[in-house]
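My hope is that you will study the protein record below before we discuss the fold together.
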Amino acid sequence: MKKFGSILLATTLALTLTACSSSNSASSNNEAASSGSSTNSTAKKPVEITYWYSWGDKIAENNENLVKMFNESQDEVIVKAEYQGSYADQHSKAQAAFAAGNAPEVWQNEIASVGVFAESGMTQDLTPFVEKDQVDMKDFIPGLMGNSYVNGKLYALPYLRSTPILYLNRTMLKEAGLDPAGPKNWAEFEDYARKLTIKDQRYGISMPIDIWFYEGFVRQSGGTMISEDGKSAAFNNETGIEPVKLWLKMKEEGIMNIGTTDDAGSQAKTDFHNQRAAMIFSSTADLTNNMKVAEEQGFELGTTFMPANHTYGVPTGGANLVMTSGLSPEKQEAAWKFIKWMTDKEQTIYASSFTGYLPSRISAVESDEMKKLYEEKPLFKVAVDQLEYAGPRPMQKVYPEIAEIIKDEILRAVVDPSISAEAAVAEAAKKADALLNK
C-alpha cells in the first residue's frame, strides 16, 4: 500500500499516501432536434460531472474503462474521468477546488480520511440517496464498511478496497527447501527471510516503514492504534513495540532491507520484481501487475496472509467514493447515479477481476464469475479470505499526522542504532497524545 502521511492543514486536514498514473476522459453528447415544423423540441441534454481518481497502471485503466462503460450505458449523465496523482495530491486538490467552488462532483476518498472530509463539510451525506433507492447495504462486506460512516451517517461507499498481503517468490522458496505456501507466523517469517537471504545478492524481504504495515503488525499482536475514547495512543506497549523490535532485529541481521528514502515503497517492489528480494508486503491491488511481472521475469508468484503473532490481523485500505457537498439537485442526482453504478455488483466484479482489489459486495464474491476466477487463479482469493481478520483504520482528524509521526520515529530507530524500539514508540505516542488532546 501506498505511503501514508500528512498534509492539508487548511481545514485541520492532514493526509499523505503515494501513487502515479495517466489521465484520459470519455464523453458523449446526445442531442436531438427537429425542424421544419411549428413545434421545435430539443431532447434534454445530459448532465456532465467530473470524477477524480488516483493510482496508475492497471488501476488507472480500470477507472477509465468503467467510466467509458458507464457513459455508454445511458444517456442521462456524462462523466469526465481525471487522474489526480496520489491520494494526498487528490485530497489537497479537492480541498482547494472546494474552496474555489469548482470541486469534482465525485472523487476517491482514502478510507482513513473519510471522517476528516465529512466533518469539515466537504462531502455529502449519502443516507437519503441510499434510502430513496433502497440500496441493500447488507450486501456490502461488513469488514469494509468501518470507514464509511461518520457520526451515524453514511458518507462513502466502498469502491477499490484492499488489505496488505505477503507476496512470495515461490521459485526461490522451493529452491531454499521452504514450504511454497509461505510463513504462517512471525517466527516462520523470520526463518524464511533468513534462509532466503543470499549476502550481497538477495534479501529475504524488502520493505518500507509503512504505517499500513505497522497497523497490521500491531493488530497481529492484539493491539490497536488509538484508545476507544479517541483521546490517547494505544500502541505504547508491547503490541506496538514488538513489531519494531522484530524489524530492527531482522534489519541488523541483514535479512530484511528497510528503505529509508521517500521512494522506499517503490524500491521494495522493484527489488521483488528484479528478484533482489524473495518477499514483500504490498496491497492486494498490486496482484495483477505482480502476476504480469512474475510471468515476464520467469518466476512463480505466491500470496499469503500477513503472518500472525498472537493472531492474524490486517487493516483494510484503499478508497471509497464520495460526493462533494453543496451540489445542485441535478448534479446530486447525476453524481449519485454514477456512485451507485460504480459500486454495484457487476462493476465490483469487473474492478476486482481487473486489478486484484477486493470485491466489496457479498453478491460479487458469491457470483459465478468470481468463483470461477478464484478456482482458476486462487491468488485472487487470499485477500478475501484474510478479511476475516481485517478491521477499519482510525479516522480521527489528526490520525494522518499521527501516522507520519509514527513512521518518522521508527525510521529514526532504523538509521540510528542508539534509539531503541521502546524509545521510538514512546516518543511517537507522546506526540500522538499531544495531537489527540489539542
Q: What stands out?
A: The longest strand covers residues 47-53. The chain is about 40% helix and 15% strand.
